[in-house]
Amino acid sequence: MILGGILLLRGALAPAFRTLQWEEGRHAAAILGCSLFATFAMELIGYRITMIIILGFLFGGLERLKPWQVFSLTLGMALGSFWVFDTFLRVPLPRGGWGF
Prior knowledge:
Elements: H1 2-11, H2 25-45, H3 47-62, H4 67-88
């Protein structure tokens, strides 16, 4: 309650919301789109393929990394996170229609 009161009092000193320029709007929209895609694609095509598509888009299309960086980061993060969650943490992740 104390922090909420401080925020309420200090909020009056902040600039109006409509005067702020959001330079990262494109990134936020891409992340929101990827989240929506993951919501609908995860059960259908599985965790690993969904993450490969999403990370490939974010690293290659949005961040414009070099192809070898996109490839290594995408595969490393998608397959590595699946391995950690599935093997060590025993979290049942979707495998999709192909079992992958």
